[in-house]
Amino acid sequence: MTDVPSIEPESQQRWTAVDHYITDLLLPEDPALDAALRASAAAGLPTIAVTPNQGKLLELLARVQGARTILELGTLGGYSTIWLARALPPGGRLVTLEAKPRFAEVARVNIVRAGFGDVVEIRVGPALQTLPELAAEGAGPFDLIFIDADKGNYPGYFSWALKLSRPGTVIIGDNVVRDGAILDPGAKDPLTGDTDLIRGVRRFYELLSAEPRVSATAIQTVGDKGYDGFVLAIVGDED
Ligand code: SAH
Ligand code: DHB
Ligand code: MG
Known about the structure:
The chain has eight helices and seven strands, in the order H-H-H-E-H-E-H-E-H-E-H-E-H-E-E. By secondary structure, the protein is α/β, with parallel strands linked by helices. The protein has a single domain (9-235), classed as 3-Layer(aba) Sandwich (Rossmann fold). 40% of the residues are buried.
């Protein structure tokens, strides 16, 4: 990667140790979430779910927001889904979109086991297909939207998120730093080797910057999952 120094293994070890310190103190053993991670690993899903302390941040943000309806893009095994569903009040609803039927099936079992079978709806298919279907059905507006599917499509996901929003909707976008690779327009993603990914994430920042309806920030994070970051945005009025 041009001009961006690589990360020392010692740094990663320290971030992981600190994540364990935080998790041991603030996040007690959690049978439903632990089972979801075990089942996802046993089914061979990639180990790219949010970390426990990030998952809890999602839950807390949804609680602060008072979210009653949540939309998630990128279910994987349902780990972040369960965290977000925990924030919902009685009668709350969560729709989560996943391209891979096999991942969605693992997620379904995990979500039912966690007690959210009646709260969460999983829509299987590429999100750029399921989003227009949702919109056509009159779904939304959602109170909180978590964008965490394929990063190359974040620009399209952001525009659908806006369509499915109301003033006050919170939009969160995961994986917007990627070891700092976003500094380099031609960079390959350090984890996947994918160039579309970095292009997509950079375009996402540009759309956020140009969109008068949103107020946004991004925060860099380090931890067990390395060096990355997330966008936090709130939808306002047209002007
Ligand atoms: N939110 C999850 C992690 C999601 S990983 C968690 O933190 O627990 C990204 C997910 O997006 C993967 O499951 C992948 O299959 C899914 N995905 C990739 N491309 C997609 C697409 N076009 N539409 C919907 N989901 C997609
Ligand atoms: C990947 C996807 C994620 O959502 C994430 O948090 C980390 C990695 C990936 O596709 O490599
Ligand atoms: Mg992610």
